[in-house]
Sequence to fold (356 residues):
Amino acid sequence: MISKQQISEIISKYDLDDLAIATVCSHSSLQIFDGARKEGLKTIGICVGQPPRFYDAFPKAKPDEYIVVESYSDIPKIAEELVEKNAIIIPHGSFVEYMGGKNFADLPVPTFGNREVLEWESDREKEREWLEGAGIHMPKNIPDPKDIDGAVMVKYYGAKGGRGFFIAKTYEEFMENIDPNEKFTIQEFILGTRYYLHYFYSPLENEGYKLSEGTLEMLSMDRRVESNADEIFRLGSPRELEEAGIHPTYVVTGNVPLVARESLLPLIFSLGEQVVEESIKLFGGMIGPFCLETVFTDHLEIKVFEISARIVAGTNFYISGSPYSDLVESGLSTGKRIAQEIKLAKSRGQLDKILS
Fold:
């Protein structure tokens, strides 16, 4: 992984009055570009083949310029060009997944957030070590598939938008569906309602919900729409579907906005606080947006089954603000909040605290 010192040397040569926000034209790029423009920052869209035409339909979110590559694995080849343009990379799930974790870790361009989090987020075992070390309640892990004795969720490593994930109730069902070429984890299936909680951690701010260092913000929540799991049961009961050889799949196709019972907000903030504090101990802290992927049970417990340590696509319908972010600042999106943090760091001479 590129060192903090190397990134600091690159930043020292930047024209800080001409910073640009750069990201891959996918995932949450519309709100990233829109938020940057609202804060007076230039924008650069990185795309494969040719600029996507749909940006022409959204002029407020269209990047100021494009850099075209032949494939996402070629992004390191444009690193020097990005540095010449005083670019700061904003990573999102598609950016890291398409480019590859190692290429992203080594990319010699200043990047918003702490790249050290990648090692802890992308490895399911280290992710569990992090979250359980923070005192978070997680679904039980089942190391040996032969020990499956009830419903479990089988997940592959990395950000795959739910592709390939499946539920199994027996070892035989597990063997029928597993891809032996992929690393996987097996979790107890928890009954409840899925909530995706969108936070923002600032190591710079000192007003608000204070942590040992900086502050924690709660910007929004969502639920994911998964194909075909969210519609499949219109065809019959689970038993009828099973007999017909029809099985649910969990590919994310969209998102639905949510708010939680207000009485749950203390617990929601406590979970975010615990995760951030543990991240500070383990690897110097994750910076900026992150998402706890949870299940709310009928006992009003919250089980965390995963963390995404960057902006998630579930924030996309809050480009003009959410019921929560509006209580911080009207019309505040996660994309805009990222741009604000960069501007704050620049004004204080503390870019090294939020870039890696």
In short: The chain has a mean pLDDT of 91. The CA atoms of residues 161 and 252 lie 5 Å apart.
